[in-house]
Amino acid sequence: MYLGYSVAKKFRIDPFLGMLLAGVLLIPQMGTLLTQEGGITLLGFKLQAITYSSSVLPIFLGVWAMSYLDRVADKFIPNSLKFVLKPLVMIMIAVPLTLIVLGPLGFTVDNYLAMFLEFLQANLGWAAVLVMGAFSPVLVMAGMHYALFPMLMTAFATNGYDMLVVPGMLAANMAQAGAATAVALKTKSSVMKQLASSSAITALMGVTEPAMYGVNLRLKKPFLAVMIGGAAGGLYAGISGLKAYALVSSLVALPSYLSSTTNFINAIVTCALGYGVAFAAAYVIGFEDIVDAEQQPVVTIDKSLVKEMNLASPVKGSIIDLMDVNDSAFSSLALGKGFAVIPSEGKVVSPVSGTISAIFPTKHAIGITTDEGIEILIHVGINTVQLGGKHFTNHVAMNEKITKGQLLIEFDLNAIQKDGYDTTTMVVITNTSQYLDVLSHQDEEKALTVVL
């Protein structure tokens, strides 16, 4: 579940959709259903009897597919319906796609990866540790290192130690620290210098995410240095037969290698090689440095090129901040920036001239598109959709041309409140992302400014 959340954040989609997809794969009864006589089918396809609890790539591939679905849905679903329809459409497509195609594919790749490393270890042990040291950061970045845990647990249970995964990751973690240290010494950015220095220390302690994502992967070339350093340390660990007795890959875990003096020295040399080779490689290869904000040239904007459009409040009453309304769809600004009004009368008039682009069957909300392309949603009340149009009267039709100040909706303010509904009215610009900014004001005549 956490993997689905974290991968979704990396792909910049709703992380809870990633968790939901992971939850579908991890349903406790799923294994029973898949292994029952005859199995189960979905959309005419028989689902494979796979247990996904110890697999990583199926969830990764499923969320990756959702990231593309997110873009398509964002393009074709109207802004006024995205909050409800977008996640529904994404899940309806992603779940069958993952269960039928991507899940089995990821499970197979996970198994082949483990089999490949087991083959290397069995036939050419030192090469397997070299590969692990070099590509461990890539596996961690993709979340595929979890696929190695069953093999790792088997090694600990059978032998009491591991000679592949942990030694390889030890070299890779030290390489992350070495590359970050080189960046800290070479960068001219005070911000990057501070980030690289602190992340190098945390990497030495086994927490590599700040160094990986904040420094090495961000600057690209240092990440190559990490792989070179990891390969060097892994090569020595493989040749020397380094044995790890604990599932920790950091300097603080060095005492766990004290099964013998030789093993302890090999662990120290592995760390030194991983750190030193990555440091040297990053320093020699270099990187494209970033520029601090105070070092960037000042850009002067010609104010004559910036246009503004002011909107009056469509409802008389007290204007409040949109983030203060008791409706997360609006207060989170997911539907766009705007403002809210606590109405003093039950009339909604158009704040602009334009075209009616959306009319809700329940009459509680209406969409307007101006001649300039600004999309405005006026939503009367919270959860008033449940009234089914009761207490509301529409005065315009779909695609009707309207003028500023024209009456759009009338609503019985007292009756709605008597039925237990909050009458706070929200006004949002649903295509906010297309403009430089959308600013709200505590002024009925100039409640909103759209910076074009």
Strand content: 5-15%
Order of helices and strands: HHHEEHHHHHHHHHEEHEEEEEEEEHEEE
Task: Report the oligomer.
Answer: single chain
Q: In terms of per-residue confidence, which ranges show pLDDT below 50 for 5 or more consecutive residues?
A: none
N-C termini distance: 41 Å
Q: How many strand segments?
A: 15
Compute the average pLDDT.
84
Short summary of the structure?
With 452 residues, this protein is of the alpha+beta class. It has helices spanning 2-10, 15-25, 30-35, 57-76, 82-123, 125-142, 149-159, 165-186, 190-204, 209-219, 221-240, 261-285, 328-331, 413-418, and strands spanning 41-42, 45-46, 308-311, 317-321, 337-343, 347-349, 354-359, 365-370, 375-380, 392-394, 401-402, 407-411, 425-429, 437-440, 448-451.
What topology does this entry show?
Layout: H1 2-10, H2 15-25, H3 30-35, E1 41-42, E2 45-46, H4 57-76, H5 82-123, H6 125-142, H7 149-159, H8 165-186, H9 190-204, H10 209-219, H11 221-240, H12 261-285, E3 308-311, E4 317-321, H13 328-331, E5 337-343, E6 347-349, E7 354-359, E8 365-370, E9 375-380, E10 392-394, E11 401-402, E12 407-411, H14 413-418, E13 425-429, E14 437-440, E15 448-451
Antiparallel strand pairs: 1-2, 3-15, 4-5, 5-13, 6-12, 7-8, 7-11, 8-9, 9-13, 10-12, 14-15
Helix pairs in contact: 1-2, 1-4, 2-4, 2-5, 4-5, 5-6, 6-8, 6-11, 8-9, 8-10, 8-11, 8-12, 9-10, 10-11, 11-12
